[in-house]
């Protein structure tokens, strides 16, 4: 509804060319296969390599690590386009690979860790995942029980993770484990686990309510031995600090997914209401339909304005944890409302999987849960305004 006021005319033109080519890539390489991937429960592994070849992965990674060093807008544009097209399941895993894991390496990793993993991630040769959640610890991350105990020239890891996006495809797992199980949050460290290591096992691809094309798995570590240089940044006990530092980007990208998922739902509804007839009129002529669509468009536009302000703050290093928590809360709750209202406009057809609106609706639900639940976002915002 409003142009992005934070971008120059040149940046807008470059981004438009980038997204045009991505749209063509989606038409050729994703759309013809997406229904089959939804049924299979995961995308074809080759899709990551193809996206890498075209420069669509980790676009803001600097050139020295194999990227193109573009602004974050290019990386976010990939999530924008795919979310708008209704590929929510794939986006759930893609954003972990392309927006969540690279900053851990760039900001917290050693030079050797960056040089090894980032070029592989940019090309799509290595798919990345992040393993924080465990069966007994989700919102309360400091309660994780996976341990990494120092043993000679490495660490021995035991435990398990659950709900891990890209769990089936991942070659790199950024793993949260306790190097000092008695020290609470201060005992948490992050490891860069090469998933070919002995002692690493993937559980089955979990059967979800939505986001079917994204693989989500349990992972098991049975005396998994990693070298000492797999410790992120080479310092023990920094895991919690590192996670808190990088969570804003995770929540920001979920905001992108939410806003453009809602825009996509609105787009398919706008088309449908002009075609479907009832009582001698297109249903788009009923006042209720017009008001519903106006309400949805207003919700998307106001969320997008907040998102753009948060992206601009992020680029300047000024995005606060409370602002991005408010963004995640606002945009993901908004997506739920918009997807639901748009589905209603389809009547019974909206409940049929054959109609894309049904996928927008089922894919939307989990955004209020992953990356920190809406309740945890409210806690974080409340803490910042109440001072405790
Ligand atoms: C499809 C999918 C993909 C995911 N991908 C990943 C991934 O790649 N990596 C990863 O590590 N994790 C991933 N997760 C896990 C996700 O981040 C967690 O599910 C989420 O953080 C919530 O944790 P939980 O499921 O243990 O719920 P719980 O923490 O048990 O919460 C249960 C309920 O209690 C509420 N609650 C908890 N604490 C409080 C509180 N203090 N105040 C008020 N209410 C509270 C919650 O809001 C929720 O409503 C994924 C989950 C899903 C479903």
From TrEMBL:
Domain of life from the UniProt record: Bacteria
Keywords for this protein: FAD, Flavoprotein, Oxidoreductase
Domain Acyl-CoA dehydrogenase/oxidase N-terminal positions: 14-125
Annotated metabolic or biological route of this protein: Siderophore biosynthesis; mycobactin biosynthesis
InterPro entries reported for this sequence: Acyl-CoA_dehydrogenase (IPR050741), Acyl-CoA_DH_CS (IPR006089), Acyl-CoA_Oxase/DH_mid-dom (IPR006091), Acyl-CoA_Oxase/DH_mid-dom_sf (IPR046373), AcylCo_DH-like_C (IPR036250), AcylCo_DH/oxidase_C (IPR009075), AcylCoA_DH/ox_N (IPR013786), AcylCoA_DH/ox_N_sf (IPR037069)
Gene3D superfamilies for this protein: Acyl-CoA dehydrogenase/oxidase, N-terminal domain, Butyryl-CoA Dehydrogenase, subunit A, domain 2, Butyryl-CoA Dehydrogenase, subunit A, domain 3
Sequence ranges assigned to domain Acyl-CoA dehydrogenase/oxidase C-terminal in this UniProt record: 237-386
Coiled-coil boundaries: none
Domain Acyl-CoA oxidase/dehydrogenase middle: start-end pairs: 129-223
Molecular-function annotations in GO: oxidoreductase activity
Cofactor: FAD
Role description: Catalyzes the dehydrogenation at the alpha-beta position of ACP-bound acyl chains. This results in the introduction of a double bond in the lipidic chain, which is further transferred to the epsilon-amino group of lysine residue in the mycobactin core by MbtK.
Family from the record: Belongs to the acyl-CoA dehydrogenase family.
Name this protein carries in UniProt: Acyl-[acyl-carrier-protein] dehydrogenase MbtN
Organism: Ottowia flava
